[in-house]
Amino acid sequence: MSSLSRGDGDASRSTLVWDLFVRVFHWGLVGAFGGAYVLSEDGGTIHHALGYAVLGLVAARILWGFAGSYHARFANFVPTPRAFAEYTRAMLAGRERRYLGHNPAGGAMIIALLMLLTATGVTGWLLTTNAFWGSEALETLHGVCANAVLVCVALHVGGVLLASWRHRENLVSAMLTGRKRND
């Protein structure tokens, strides 16, 4: 099997795109949110700890979005509404171009997920305070936000699978190794 068929390529034909922080953040977030969601009904202290871990990871990622490596910086992947619309039209027509970093749809999804994860975490924290303890409205909002994260995750995974197929590269492997092919 060639190195490209594994999805990571060798150093001469690939580039480090996702730095170690981005990869640890990504998979840490998958674990922390997934665990918190699974334990949502009776998770108690573990659910709360995982929720705080999510908030900590999101805060660190926001900082890294301004100070991190090239492809991690918001300035390099957050699309304008026009760029997002143009990319979406091209994608629906099967003519989207390949990006070394995040494509405009992926960039928009990152922003949506960061906002929803923050809303989920903040509403969860508020539910532990005296002012909002037992608030059914806030508990409902917390659940809606968490479920919206799941919808976005499903769209994200679908987009990753579509882009992997269309551009013939293993994006899951890229998020493990950090490397994508140069062309």
UniProtKB/TrEMBL annotation:
Its main location: membrane. Residues 17-178 form the Cytochrome b561 bacterial/Ni-hydrogenase domain. Gene3D superfamilies: Transmembrane di-heme cytochromes, Chain C. The chain crosses the membrane at residues 20-39, 45-64, 105-128, 140-165. It is a multi-pass membrane protein. InterPro entries: Cyt_b561_bac/Ni-Hgenase, Di-haem_cyt_TM, Hydrogenase_cytochrome. Keywords: Cell membrane, Membrane, Plasmid, Transmembrane, Transmembrane helix. This is Cytochrome B.
